[in-house]
Amino acid sequence: MTDVLPRIILKRGKEKPVLRGHPWIFSGAVATIEGEASPGDVGEVYSRDGHFLGMGHINPESQILVRMLTSRREKIEKSFFEERISRAVELRREWFKGKISAYRIINGEGDSLPGLILDRYQEILVLQCLTAGMERLKGLFVDLLVKRFKPKSIYERSDVPTRKEEGLPEAKGILYGEEIVDPIEIDEYGCRFYVDVKEGQKTGFYLDQRENRYSLQGLAQGKKVLDCFCYSGGFSIHAGMGGAREITLIDSSEEALAKAKNHFVLNHLEGVSSYPIRGDAFEVMRDLEPEYDLIILDPPPFAKKKGHLHGASRGYKDVNLQAFRLLKKNGLLFTFSCSYHMNWDLFQKIVFSAAVDANRRVQLLARRGHPLDHPIDLSHPEGEYLKGLMCRAM
Length: 394
Ligand code: SAH
Known about the structure:
Elements: E1 7-10, H1 15-19, E2 24-26, E3 30-34, E4 41-46, E5 52-58, E6 64-70, H2 78-96, E7 102-107, E8 116-121, E9 124-129, H3 132-136, H4 138-149, E10 153-158, E11 171-177, E12 184-188, E13 191-195, H5 210-215, E14 224-228, H6 234-241, E15 246-251, H7 254-266, E16 273-278, H8 281-286, E17 292-297, H9 309-326, E18 327-337, H10 344-357, E19 362-368, E20 387-393
Parallel strand pairs: 1-4, 9-10, 14-15, 14-17, 15-16, 17-18
Antiparallel strand pairs: 1-3, 2-6, 4-5, 5-6, 7-8, 8-9, 10-11, 12-13, 18-20, 19-20
Bound molecules: S-adenosyl-L-homocysteine.
The site of S-adenosyl-L-homocysteine has 20 residues, from helix 6, strand 15 and helix 8.
């Protein structure tokens, strides 16, 4: 290698997590940077006493100063990324064939590609670059993805506020192929959904909840269902497919409810009584009668920062308390948290305390998290954000 790469020298003792494979190095762990380093460069990482630890994308402007790419000394070039993409694709290929047409192909750190997200919706790919390093490689990724998948279009959805922390503006738009005009119709275990990759939430759909939605197909027969924070009705549609008798949907977004309505039609579920309610779930739930057999609580992340955890805990407690109040005897509650900072233990304690306050005895039937296409690197527990508890209230 002829290029002289910037060298990141860590403070004494700070090499330990890196040696165990953690992909993030915070600026506080860095003693000095030797050489010219600008956001998005590849740099070499060394311990204080000069041991080579690996290479990663660096961004001196970000609190996460390095995102490790490899523990070896190697060329970070096209073939390097080609191999990482192949590894990610291989994981998904066999599982999803013919069953679903929308899934995550690359899950950032979980697929050893920190800062890069790639979702597939039929023949459309949606790319998200979260770091300066990945931003620079956008052109390379587009080339690799076109070659590998021959997509109709590649659309960028890097319109996420966390880009600010990397000194990057939000960005969205077509990167390759045809302009996308209509929503894309996807198949999720027999249910059909329209996905708007340009304006929809996340990259268009909550792919991370797919398996949990699907599980309702086996649980909803004859049930009266309440789907809180429903977005475009994913859980409701699967419940409808599973034979639900009546479904009430709550979301604060009018647009989301309009999408949900279309999904009932698309799936020929007009025969199921459905009652969309637009409003704040915290308020709406207070006014409902306790007559539900199955309740889904899938709120947005209440704790986006660690400091929000206290307020978030109260929010989770409140909605879960309402849910237990609204459940009939032996009713089921499927309750989620997608806050990074809320761990399993705390979440379960909050749900338990909601049960106590609602004066219900509750069985925990299952813990449900992320699906197979959202892998987490075990050395990077921060990647695990989705936590779900399936409960039955006596
Ligand atoms: N269950 C959905 C995803 C839910 S995302 C699925 O599987 O697709 C969270 C949803 O909560 C968003 O649609 C958002 O519009 C809605 N939301 C946010 N705050 C809310 C509130 N206070 N009351 C009701 N809905 C809210």
